[in-house]
Design a protein that fits this description.
548 residues; alpha/beta; eight-stranded parallel β-barrel; five-stranded antiparallel β-sheet; 12 helices; globular; disulfide bond; glucan endo-1,3-beta-D-glucosidase
Amino acid sequence: MTLVDKESSVASIIGICYGRNGDDLPTPDKAVQLIQGHSIKYVRIYDSNIQVLKAFANTGIELMIGIPNADLLAFSQYQSNADTWVKNNILPYYPSTKITYITVGAEVTESPVNVSSLVVPAMTNVHNALRKAGLNKRIKISTTHSLGVLSRSFPPSAGAFDPKFASFIKPLLEFLVENQSPFMVDLYPYYAYKDSPTNVTLDYALFNSTSSAVIDQNTGLIYTNMFDAQIDALYFALTAVNFNTIRVMVTESGWPNKGSSKETAATPDNAQTYNTNLIRHVINDTGTPLKPGEEIDVYIFSLFNENRKPGLDSERNWGVFYPGQTSVYNLDFSGREGGLVVNVSAGGGNGSWCIASPNASERDLKNALDWACGSGNVDCSAIQPSQACFQPDTLASHASYAFNSYYQQNGASTIACDFGGTGMITTKNPSYDNCLYQSTGGYPASNSTAATQSSSAISYAPTPFGIWALILEIDGKVSSEESSLATHIMVTNGLGCVLDLCIFAWFQRVYVNDAGSQVSRNASLYGLHKLFSHLWIRISGIYGIYTF
């Protein structure tokens, strides 16, 4: 699957949000040229401006258009208003302008004026107008939400809709099911980090936690990034109200490139890192821990910096481009270049590579491949259909490419080629034809430093051969009961350090943050279940049970 060619119904897409709340922005025609120049074929706009609709004509770009909150009253009260709007804003331009979605209102639960009760009636009238025109099957209708529609989102399995929105949510979900429309949401891990930096690490928000993960205590699901956790919280919330067939679509996500002196994480480097990793995560089609392989459609926010937007400095600086059409930072929308990967070699000379073991079972190999392309944050686009490493189309070949990418990105250490016993190291270059395997020495620069942690987290230190030491005081007895791969920990507040015992394990990172709400460990724990049994742990006031 590529970014620009949605080849099947289960292929994820990356689009971009084209807002126009700024001065000196290029004309719609020039904006479309810029979008085409970066091979972007999915765009969201926030109204139905005629000049913009004309600019997208005959481009093949799929367009999501919007009805602003200010128009909801008129659309909800009279069917004739919706009929007239479709007649004037859809029919003259469709299908030359490829309109595929209409958002009726945006984040209405965040609006200072309560208009949520108007949304479903307005959606119904717009749907009726499309049906009269014979377009209700071709153009889908929904409305966008902030994550604030949930009363709880952590852990993801506790995701639940806020009861105060019940009268709005239930009829909305019924409409979405009846018309096979997605639940649209705007997700911003940036705000999760900004609002709670002691509970959310920067690397976790940026998709950089390739060596650590957060475990959902209730399900055992492993999360290596905030984005997946937020999506799964929505899926759990939908399931809790018996609407588990609705698909989630992310209509905005991004990272600001500039902010005030208090918004230190709003930088071009962080914006580039987040959006690059997001694009790669989406085009790999690995889904989320709860929904592996599930389609995730995402629209990057946004095309331009928009200087007329109110609020903090960061609000005006989410663009990938300046109004003059120069790049704020380099972003490869194909997900194959730039961003995090540097010094990639095609091999040759002395080196080592990680490939699939011929003794691995097909089931174990598939599980390891899914992990590498998902939680392992490997760019697996090269093994997608029509790409350089897709042939031979075998599990062993695809796994070898993914294993080697993870191996090289993690310092080419022995443990980075374990994959639960399904990987093996070779000194023979496995590259072939146009499929070039990265060799020893090429890995993401972001992995050269440890993840940003809370200052009060348990410390860890490197030891030879990739083994790290976790220093704990053991209080009580060791249970003989063995557990599965899932890791659970329950802690209370407080942290001091009385260090009595060193436990050496084959993982790189384990810590408990000062809020006692998250657990982080090396994602390389894959295949190491039953290494230990239950350990009752006390660390100067922190009590818990750590299960391997």
